[in-house]
Design a protein that fits this description.
Oligomer: homodimer
Number of strands of chain A: 16
Helix content of chain A: 40-55%
Strand content of chain A: 15-25%
Mean pLDDT of chain A: 96
Structural class of chain A: alpha/beta
């Protein structure tokens, strides 16, 4: 078994090769990876069965077993994902803002690969392929560290991808999987300064916080979403009901799902009973402020301060009646995680104020928070959704996986 | 004395106010700060004298005493700096890449303030004003932590600035100085997650590494520069001599000064004796590879591996003869700090190869590395030079002190 540090060193040694590779060569390798994954589907399913059996023995629930399972559909899915990434425009090499200084230097900003991208994720083995393909197209070597429940699947997928890359005449060390799935192994990766240029944790709030607190390499925080729907006094009630239902219930386990409802006092009596009725169709549990409880009655659990800060990721919602748009904004800026926030309103000034003052990656007027997604935003694919302000904020596509450098053409200039 | 955490909390409470302030109000406050600094020059000089006397008692050398000193010229300089920042375009609020999705959502990327910017720096008290002015114009509250040698000066400058801001009807907590200058105090700042959005260390390599290793808040690494001049076989020897002399000797203590010379084998015998002669005018000490020593003789100290990795910041240089441009690139990518690198050449393909393959914030063809500077790059002012790949790379102006958010205008869209 390679140590984590050895794996990081191999990736760093391969970054120059992938970083200077042309678009056509990168795309050809991505298509070769896609073909190899489909050609080796029996081998993948066999490795996957090992993980599933181990998971059942260790008492994983069926939801987790499902996330772990690689059937033919999912194998075809990840292969098609590679083909889609091959079809995306190459972000690397674009030069922008080229200008000539008074002294005659030509200075431009060139988009360049990150170098080595580390990604730490949890159970789903398809992330191994998705993440590898995106890093590859973005011109970076990658060091992936999946969950130990998916270890055999990840190892098999990675071996197939490395072989495919090698068959294209490239170094297999452009793509790497950490074989040591202990916490200590993850910590080595988080502190591989000089080897890993950026580390992206994908998964639970706990994983992300562990990475933020342990890492000494640059990190992009992703994915925790305590998202709010604020129904302003002037809201169209039917629109607000549709947006609330969609944001809360269309898929409860995702980071852009709504977790909290804020309602202006003037519309609360008219809106809340209908909202309750609508969410009752999905058996949503309510945690309400005193006014909410007064309007909706005994079935509402009184909301605690902790409720307002909770990302339920389930059929559960917190609800608060507020006095104004500014009240709603203050509540959101206190409790949110900087992900996605929505106002439903007819009022132009309230819409503008909400867009200006809410501190989040994506701020919506009259649309569901569920749209915060690389695909929906037109990026083609995403590696995650950044909830920090440094480097990238919101859905991260290929462009967000790159850096830049200044290139300067001179004719002997000195200062 | 306020604790560091209290100071960070005050800054966080003030970020909404400065973040939504209009350009004219920000500029008016910056001009008021400039006037107040000049009106209070005697008070500043008095506080500064306390620091200078303490510094002399503690045995600070005259170079450090000079950096610490605030005479009338420097006070006028920082005041004028505020006026220049007021005159720069406001980076906040620009919306780019606005597009309409197939579903009719209008999605745009809006430039927004960071929130709270933390800056940890060393002896020079003028940084207190420069950094505060840049953060203010960029729409962020700031938490500054200067060196303890400049404590009285910093406190006095900050008090004058806070009073000026308050006199404009704004919260003085937009501008903050950490009063606790212990290491523990700095550590609190480095781990003020949720309060500080980005932390920028400015100063020695040791300070920056301490921040990188201790901080759990997002950090931008700045300023360490082991910069190379590579003289290719086809170089114009006179141009190479001018660039070498300028990059090495024009100001030795700065991060964009050259620290290492690489010379192609075919030009080494012709170039090196002239280079030695030129740098002898500045009494530069040479550390050379065996070939360099063979050409230049006994006065050259044999270079160690450590020399190639050293940022001398002094009249000292390491030198190595290489076989090719690719050799030079490999050497640079091994030893550099990702700051500024230069090739001197007549060869088109070598120039392009160097620009493509050297991994640094600024890569030059035929120009001195000394140009890596916010002013020279046309940014008007800079907060530092980023040597990391995340968020900003190279000189950081006002734009690099901002983040973005997506704003989405809908008409009831759901997924």
């Amino acid at each position: 078994m390679n140590t984590v540090l050895e794996t990081c060193r191999r990736a760093a040694a391969a970054k120059q090769e992938i970083g200077t590779l042309g678009t056509q060569q990168k795309n050809a390798a991505l298509l070769a990876i896609a073909d190899a994954l489909q050609a080796n589907r029996e081998r993948i399913k066999q490795a996957n069965r090992q993980d599933i059996e181990a998971g059942r023995k260790n008492g994983l629930n069926e939801g987790l077993i499902d996330r772990l399972t690689l059937g033919d559909d999912r194998i075809d899915g990840v292969a098609d994902g590679c083909r889609q990434v091959a079809a995306l425009p190459d972000p690397v090499g674009e030069v922008t803002e080229m200008k000539v200084t008074p002294g005659g230097l030509k200075i431009g900003k060139k988009r360049v690969p990150m170098g080595v991208i580390g990604i730490i994720y949890e159970s789903r083995p398809n992330v191994t392929v998705d993440a590898a393909a995106l890093c590859f197209k973005a011109g970076s070597a990658c060091v992936l560290r999946g969950g130990k429940e998916a270890f055999h699947s990840n190892l098999c997928l990675m071996q197939i991808m490395r072989d495919a890359v090698a068959a294209c005449g490239l170094s297999p060390d452009i793509l790497n999987l950490v074989e040591d799935t202990t916490h200590e192994g993850a910590n080595v990766m988080m502190q591989a300064n000089g080897l890993i240029d950026v580390l992206i944790p994908r998964g639970s709030a706990r994983l992300i916080q562990a990475v933020v607190h342990t890492a000494t390499v640059p990190v992009i925080e992703t994915g925790v979403g305590n998202c709010h729907i604020y129904v302003d006094a002037s809201a169209d009630i039917d629109m607000a009901l549709d947006i609330l239902e969609n944001a809360k219930c269309q898929r409860v386990s995702v980071c852009n799902a709504a977790e909290s409802l804020l309602v202006h006092r003037d519309i609360a009596a008219a809106f809340l009973p209908k909202a309750k009725e609508r969410l009752d169709q999905h058996s949503v549990i309510w945690h309400g402020c005193p006014e909410t409880c007064a309007i909706l009655g005994d079935s509402i659990i009184p909301a605690t301060d902790e409720d307002y800060g909770t990302e339920y990721l389930d059929y559960e919602i917190s609800c608060k009646v507020v006095d104004s748009t500014d009240d709603a904004i203050a509540h959101i800026n206190r409790y949110n995680t900087g992900h996605s926030e929505c106002i439903v309103t007819h009022d132009y000034f309230h819409a503008q104020r909400f867009l200006d003052a809410v501190d989040a990656a994506a701020v919506y007027v009259n649309a569901s928070t569920r749209f915060t997604d690389g695909g929906e935003f037109g990026f083609g694919a995403e590696i995650g959704i950044s909830t920090q302000k440094l480097h990238a904020r919101g859905p991260m596509g290929l462009k967000e996986l790159t850096s830049n450098k200044y290139i300067i053409y001179g004719e002997g200039q000195i200062r």
